[in-house]
Structures are given as C-alpha cells and as structure tokens.
C-alpha cells in the first residue's frame, strides 16, 4: 500500500506547478489539485508497482484529470455584437463590420465541434498546437491537420461571403 501522506508531501508542489502550466484559472487548478489527490487515495490499493517509484502513477493521474477537465468543459460564448458597430473599432483596434462578425460566427458554427475546439484553444486561449493536442487527447499531427483544415474552411467561407 502506498503512503499517501508521503506522496502528498513529495508531489503536491510539483503537481500544482504542472496544473498551473496547463490550466490558467487558479480556482480550477485548486479543484484539480484536490481531485488528483482524491484519485490517488482511491487508487492507492490498486497500485502494484514499486512504492519508491510512484511518479509515473502520480503524473498519469494528474494528466488524466487535466484531460478530463478539458473534455468535459464545453463552454461556448456568444459573440457580443453590441461591442462593435458597423465600421467600429474593437478593443484590439481591428476594424470589423457587423456583417463580417456575423459571417465569422456563422462560419465557426459550420466547423465540427473538434475543429471549433482546436480553433478556440489556439486563438481564444492563445495556446500552441502542441498544447491543443494535449488538451484534446489527439496526436500533434491530427491537431495540425484539423487546424489547417478549419482555417481553410473559415478562409473559403469568408472569401465567398465578404
């Protein structure tokens, strides 16, 4: 049986740092930190490896918790068109018309859920493709292909509409 108190003492800070690297919200990091150690305690009896080499066990549970968080987190926000008027300036200083924003919103709806998630991770959350691969549980190559495909679909749609 594993010594869960020792595991907590040895790995708490490391897991906290790992979670902060992969999740930007401090409250979510705290929740996931608790969930990781809850799972460690739940599965301590089933661990059959060397009690002195539990790091792979601990990090596998941590990685699974992060992946579960991103897989179950399906939040999509509506675009607030009141922020931009025809020919107005957005907070970033870019010029968009109401028609362009509506067209972009429609184009995003036409993407598959997986493609939308990759676009959201890369552009909304400003994460790299490698991070998107980790979050989605897909290989880097699969994410890269889906990302390229999604951008091509968006580009084609916007060219035909605008």
Relevant terms:
mainly alpha, 162 residues, 0% strand
Quick summary:
With 162 residues, the protein is mostly helical.
Mean pLDDT, to the nearest integer, reads 83
Which geometry do the CA atoms define?
Answer: elongated
Helix/strand/pairing category: mainly alpha
Strand proportion, as a percent range, falls in under 5%
Uncertain regions spanning at least 5 consecutive residues: 84-91
N-to-C SSE string, H for helix and E for strand: HHHHHHH
Kindly provide the radius of gyration, computed on alpha-carbon positions and rounded to a whole number of angstroms: 21 Å
The amount of helix comes to: 55-70%
| Tally of helical runs | 7
Oligomer classification: single chain
Span from first to last CA?
A: 64 Å
Strand tally, please? 0
Major sheet size, sense and barrel closure: none
């Amino acid at each position: 049986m594993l010594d869960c108190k020792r595991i907590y003492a040895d790995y708490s800070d490391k897991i906290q740092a790992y979670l902060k690297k992969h999740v930007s919200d401090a409250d979510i990091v705290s929740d996931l930190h608790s969930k990781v150690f809850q799972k460690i305690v739940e599965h301590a009896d089933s661990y059959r490896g060397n009690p002195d080499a539990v790091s792979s066990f601990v990090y596998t549970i941590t990685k699974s918790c992060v992946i579960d968080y991103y897989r179950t987190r399906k939040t999509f926000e509506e675009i607030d068109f009141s922020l931009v008027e025809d020919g107005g300036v957005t907070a970033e200083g870019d010029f968009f018309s109401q028609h362009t924003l509506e067209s972009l919103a429609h184009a995003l709806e036409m993407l598959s859920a997986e493609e939308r998630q990759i676009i959201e991770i890369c552009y909304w959350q400003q994460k790299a493709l490698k991070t998107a691969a980790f979050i989605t549980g897909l290989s880097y190559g699969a994410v890269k292909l889906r990302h390229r495909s999604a951008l091509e679909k968006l580009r084609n749609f916007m060219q035909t509409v605008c």
